From TrEMBL:
GO terms for cellular component: extracellular region. The active site is at E271 (nucleophile). This is Beta-xylanase. It catalyses: Endohydrolysis of (1->4)-beta-D-xylosidic linkages in xylans. Pathway: Glycan degradation; xylan degradation. One of its GO terms (molecular function) is endo-1,4-beta-xylanase activity. It is found in: Secreted. It comes from Serpula lacrymans var. lacrymans (strain S7.3). Residues 31-349 form the GH10 domain. The keyword Kinase does not apply. SUPFAM superfamilies: (Trans)glycosidases. Residues 1-19 form the signal peptide. Keywords: Carbohydrate metabolism, Glycosidase, Hydrolase, Polysaccharide degradation, Secreted, Signal, Xylan degradation.
Length: 352
């Protein structure tokens, strides 16, 4: 204990030193709030404030020290290690090593888990995409994959993103191996298999650009309504919330969430970040703080918004620079693990 206290103190001194000596892209003051995010979310009646994480990051001790603080984070989502290519790289060959590591971390620190994800067009192994499966064959492949993965983690996952990103921005179904072979029936096939394997897990469809009005949110509302009418199990819609700085509309976001929850599903912000075109100025970081407040406060205003997950808490491990060249600094902690103004913005949202 004495050692760990001393170590923690040393670490924070090191972090301060690092923050002061590196050429950061901004000299803006960091966060001042000491309120931890998960406790603040729970005090506001939400289930959790959580973070994505990924297996390679778990060797980074200062990173894991913050991640493990359950006052700060009450929920984890694996960024990659529960995806199809990681879990079933060859047909009927399952590898749960990475997913198990993150579940063990969550269990060891009293956090709940979101499972991410079961059926998605991306990060599929070649064996799924390279064969012209019949409808019956692909149905069985989906059922085996979903049943095996959900059964492996039965009782350990609060919510599964059963279907990830099924829609195009124009509201049509995304063309992929699943839709092209089975039509939209692949969605109910996967949801029913997941429900059978873990009747207590919340089953979600997760999607981006539901934050804005337009054909995509309309199509999602229609999809949920159709699934409900057909008696297909669906418990929630994940609103990814990968924002661009300054593009938050609280009124659109809230209206869209209420359109979904009025159908009898929960909603959650599942992958929140707010990316900035680089280099970020001090004004950008202040705008980002304001954007985080606005987004988080909408979850507070919507009773059936269960929680907020950031798509990793630090710029050190953000997916943004690799996926959106020229953009970055999207997370509430900077790449030196120092809290940014965005942190205070989140606290303000949670306490709104
Ligand atoms: C991203 C991961 O963060 C990256 O590490 C990976 O290279 C690509 O996928 N929507 C999702 C997530 O549902 O699974 C994606 O995660 C980000 C966009």
């Amino acid at each position: 204990m004495i050692f760990s206290l001393g170590f923690a103190t040393l670490l924070s001194l090191l972090q301060v030193a690092t923050a002061q000596t590196t050429t950061a892209t901004s000299t803006a003051p960091g966060a001042t709030s000491t309120v931890p995010l998960n406790y603040a979310a729970q005090a506001a009646g939400k289930l959790y404030f959580g973070s994505a994480t990924d297996n390679p990051e778990l060797t980074d001790v200062p990173y894991v020290t913050i991640l493990n603080d359950t006052a700060m984070f009450g929920q984890l989502t694996p960024g990659n290690s529960m995806k199809w290519d990681a879990i079933e790289p060859e047909q009927n060959v399952f590898n749960f090593t990475g997913g198990d590591q993150i579940v063990a971390l969550a269990e060891g620190t009293g956090k709940i888990m979101r499972g991410h994800n079961l059926v998605w067009y991306s990060q599929l192994p070649a064996w799924v995409t390279a064969t012209a499966w019949t409808a019956d064959e692909l149905t069985s492949i989906i059922q085996t994959h979903v049943t095996t993965e959900v059964s492996h983690y039965v009782g350990k996952i609060y919510a599964w993103d059963v279907i990830n990103e099924p829609l195009n921005d124009n509201g049509t179904f995304r063309s992929d191996i699943f839709y092209d072979t089975l039509g939209s029936s692949y969605i109910s096939i996967a949801l029913r298999a997941a429900r059978a394997a873990d009747p207590n897990a919340k089953l979600y469809i997760n999607e981006y650009n539901l934050e804005y009005s337009g054909p995509k949110i309309d199509a999602m509302v229609q999809l949920v309504s159709d699934l409900k009418a057909e008696g297909v199990p669906i418990d929630g819609i994940g609103i990814e919330s990968h924002y661009i700085l300054g593009e938050v509309s609280a009124s659109e976001l809230k209206a869209n969430m209420l359109n979904l929850t009025s159908l009898g599903v929960d909603v959650a912000f599942t992958e929140l970040d707010v990316r900035i075109e680089l280099p970020a100025t001090d004004a950008d970081l202040e705008q980002q703080k304001s954007d985080y407040t606005t987004i988080v406060s909408v979850c507070m205003e919507v009773a059936d918004c269960v929680g907020v997950t950031v798509w990793d808490y630090t710029d050190k491990y953000s997916w943004i620079p690799a996926s959106f060249p020229g953009y970055g600094e999207a997370c509430p902690w900077d790449e030196n693990l120092v809290k940014k103004p965005a942190y205070d913005g989140i606290v303000a949202g949670l306490q709104s």
